[in-house]
Design brief:
Elements: E1 2-8, H1 15-27, E2 32-37, H2 52-63, E3 69-72, H3 84-94, E4 99-105, H4 118-124, E5 126-130, E6 146-148, H5 158-166, H6 177-186
Parallel strand pairs: 1-2, 1-4, 2-3, 4-5, 5-6
Length: 190
């Protein structure tokens, strides 16, 4: 089984994440895409993050009706902050018959050489890179494990959605209805 891994804070998950994940699962050679909820990104401040279980629950609500997508809380039990190479290594040990592919946005490429053991990621895993608006194209030279995928570009951010909620503006169509209801009932991001 070839599994694409889309890591993220998903704070909250939105339609951009879902369209991308579904596109990768149905328009590439991947069998499925798992959305890996990261408790803490080493490059982002953690003071704006909802509790990891709220974010995990929203992802579960968002993908409940899509058999092409899965959700993973694998990093919840790992040391924080989470490093992609450690998660990939752990998953490969847990599921030795699976092939794991890292899915990342083109905007991450300039930072990629700063990732912990990024050379090992490139040596042992494929990386599927999707376009992001405003990204400076950075190619990783002589890296046959990197594939650029022409996925739709959606300029939607969780930061924008959180601001809409604080400003008491509608988030309809930006997040799935189930996620919007969960945010409303739990009074999140206010």
């Amino acid at each position: 089984m070839k599994v694409g891994l889309l890591f993220g804070s998903f704070n909250p998950i939105h339609v951009g994440h879902l369209i991308l994940a579904n596109f990768m699962a149905t328009n590439t050679d991947l069998d499925t895409v798992w959305l890996v909820v990261s408790p803490q990104n080493p490059f982002k401040p953690s003071n704006t993050l909802l509790h990891e279980f709220d974010r995990l629950h929203m992802v579960s609500l968002a993908i409940a009706d899509n058999p092409n997508l899965g959700v993973s809380n694998i990093e919840f039990s790992m040391p924080k902050p989470s490093y992609t190479i450690d998660t990939l290594t752990y998953l490969q040990e847990k599921y030795p018959s699976y092939e794991f592919v890292l899915i990342m946005g083109e905007d991450n490429l300039p930072l990629f050489p700063k990732w912990k053991n990024y050379e090992s990621i490139l040596e042992y895993h494929q990386v599927y890179v999707y376009p992001r608006s405003g990204s400076v194209t950075t190619e990783l030279p002589d890296m046959p494990s990197v594939t650029f995928v022409k996925a739709p570009i959606l300029d939607i951010s969780a930061t924008f959605i959180r601001q809409c909620i604080r400003d008491e503006k509608s988030i309809k169509y930006l997040v799935p209805d189930e996620v919007a209801e969960y945010i409303k009932v739990r009074k999140l991001y206010q």
